[in-house]
Here is the input.
Amino acid sequence: MSERTVLIVDDEFAIRDMLRMALEIAEYRCIEAESIQDAYTLIVDERPDIILLDWMLPGGSGLELLRRLKRDENTEEVPVIMLTAKTTEDNVIQGLDVGADDYLTKPFAPRELIARIRALLRRSGSGQDQGRMEVNGLVLDGESRRIFVGDNAIDMGPTEFNLLQFFMSHPERAYTRGQLLDQVWGANVYVEERTVDVHIRRLRKALQTGEADYSGLIQTVRGTGYRFSSRGL
Here is the structure.
């Protein structure tokens, strides 16, 4: 297996040095950055396999860099583990909502970090990507951006496709309208939350095909928002 590259983004030299030594013993190649600007340059130039991202950084928070990465199709699939001293539930939820794949609070054992890195790299390299997904005979082809039931294609708009792709990639979890706006429309786009309801209705209508009715996959979660689930169908 080729050597995997880990980008360590932390403004404290002692932490970067500790992480680098542990990762090199585990046979990872390490590159380091101490600011958002340096990190983004390395991401573009080096294309790391995974990023360890500190929450508090010079020039802004790690969340700002995370949002930027998740909005860019060239970097949105790179796994990110947030490293921070923040421990409240709100902070954890905020980091995961923005798009972090995992979260570790300082101090942590290097062995635990290595285990989580390996798990994320196995997941991202397993071939179970978003190129082609299937649920109960409903097939989404990410490369051609088409939806099929059997040999029949389902017609839907680009926003409805993006919504369905996100839902199928994150099943059985309830999302608020605000979270869906951030994930599907982008955190830098200012759209009213009621817009989500309009596109959910359009998506459900498109999923009512001649062969089968898949509209029930998109479930309303009272008091929260929406969830994609095949349970009960």
Summary: Helices lie at 13-25, 36-46, 62-71, 89-98, 110-124, 158-169, 177-185, 194-206. Residues 217 and 231 are 8 Å apart (CA to CA). The chain has a mean pLDDT of 84.
